[in-house]
Design a protein that fits this description.
The protein has 212 residues and is mainly α. It has a domain of 99 residues. 32% of the residues lie in helices and 8% in strands. Strands 1-2 form a two-stranded antiparallel ribbon. The radius of gyration is 51 Å and the shape is elongated. The termini are far apart.
Length: 212
């Protein structure tokens, strides 16, 4: 319960009996030595002064004096680009066009000896050379394949019989690609793709490698 204070607590003419019972400040604070209290003067803030040229002794004749220059602040070096992270993807050689096609397994088995081994051409060279050496046979084979693809009663969907196939990637130089694109122009009525040209050229190459 808080202590009740008399009404004349702030009256300076009140008798001593009404004085508060709090202990005097002398009992709370430690006694100090008698005498005047001397306060230390306040220290002024230190402000850096601009650099002043200090007169030095004159340099001897023939000796160049280089003025002192403050070093420039160094910037943190950035790491070089391309360091760390994922490795970059291998890029194909410039000027080479890769044409991928799936050929029947039987045709792949017959044509593999023509491109595998030392002294053998690549798939792209085999296709381009066959189109150059046997243009009429390649054109006939393209027309036959296009006719089969456009057959009116060709099975499709689940009724179509599947056959195993192997992917072949022919990498063609610009001049070899031009030969393949030229073989596509067999007829204005047929939409011939590069896939048909590759299959037709590989078929003709296998047939011409073992004539009857």
């Amino acid at each position: 319960m808080p202590r009740r204070v008399s009404k004349n607590v702030f009256d300076i003419t009140r008798p001593d009996s009404d004085a508060p019972s709090a202990p005097p400040l002398g009992a709370l604070l430690a006694r100090t030595a008698d005498g005047p209290v001397v306060l230390a003067p306040a220290r002024a803030p230190v402000v850096p002064s601009p650099a002043r040229a200090v007169p030095d002794e004159p340099a001897p004749e023939g000796v160049a004096v280089t003025p002192a220059v403050a070093p420039a602040p160094q910037q943190a070096e950035r790491p070089a680009r391309g360091v760390g992270g994922r490795p970059e993807k291998a890029k194909a050689p410039v000027g080479i066009t890769a044409v991928a096609v799936r050929v029947p397994s039987a045709l792949y088995a017959e044509a593999s000896p023509l491109v595998k081994g030392p002294g053998r051409p690549s798939w792209g060279q085999l296709v381009a050379w066959t189109c150059q050496d046997h243009p009429a046979a390649v054109r006939e084979q393209i027309e036959a394949l296009a006719g089969e693809a456009a057959a009116p009663r060709r099975l499709r969907g689940h009724g179509q019989q599947g056959a195993p196939a192997v992917q072949v990637t022919a990498r063609l130089l610009p001049e070899e690609l031009a030969v393949v694109d030229e073989a596509r122009r067999v007829s204005a009525d047929l939409q011939v793709t590069r896939t048909l040209v590759l299959i037709a050229a590989i078929t003709v190459a296998t047939e011409s490698s073992h004539p009857e």
